[in-house]
Amino acid sequence: MTRGVLLVAVCKDGNEMIYPLAFGFAHSECIKSWTWFLKQLRNVIQYPERVMFVSDRHEGIFAGMEAIFHDAAHGVCAYHLS
C-alpha cells in the first residue's frame, strides 16, 4: 500500500553544491501529481528560459514539462539512463 510520494526539485549552485529548492507531497507519482508540482514550481522561478531540468525520465515529468516548462531544457540523468 502506497502512503504517498515526495516530489522534489533541487538546484546546483556556482560552487557545485546541491540544495533543495522545492518539495511537495502527492498520492502517487503520476502525470497529475507532477503537473501540479511543476505548476507550483513555475510560480516561483523568475526566468524559466534559463532553467534546465534533469530527471529520471518518468512520464509524469515529461508531460508536466511539456505543459508547464515547454521553454526550458530537459535532460536525462546519466545514472537512470544506464
What is the alpha-carbon Rg in Å? 13 Å
Main sheet properties: 2 strands, antiparallel
Give the overall shape, derived from the CA principal axes: globular
Number of helices: 3
Report the β-strand fraction as a percent range: 25-35%
Percent of residues in helices = 25-40%
Low-confidence stretches: none
- Helices and strands, in N-to-C order? EEHEHEH
CA(first)-CA(last) distance: 29 Å
Number of strands: 4
The order of strands across the largest sheet is 1-2
Tally of individual domains: 1
Compute the average pLDDT: 88
Which secondary-structure class do the elements indicate?
alpha+beta
What does this structure look like?
The structure is a single chain. The chain has 82 residues and is an alpha+beta fold. It has one domain. Helix content is 34%, strand content 30%. The chain has 3 helices and 4 strands. It has a two-stranded antiparallel ribbon with strand order 1-2. It starts with a strand and ends with a helix. The model has no long low-confidence stretch (mean pLDDT 88). This is MULE transposase domain-containing protein. It comes from Acer saccharum (Sugar maple). Pfam families: MULE.
SSE blueprint and pairings:
Blueprint: E1 5-12, E2 18-26, H1 31-44, E3 52-55, H2 59-68, E4 73-76, H3 78-81
Parallel strand pairs: 3-4
Antiparallel strand pairs: 1-2
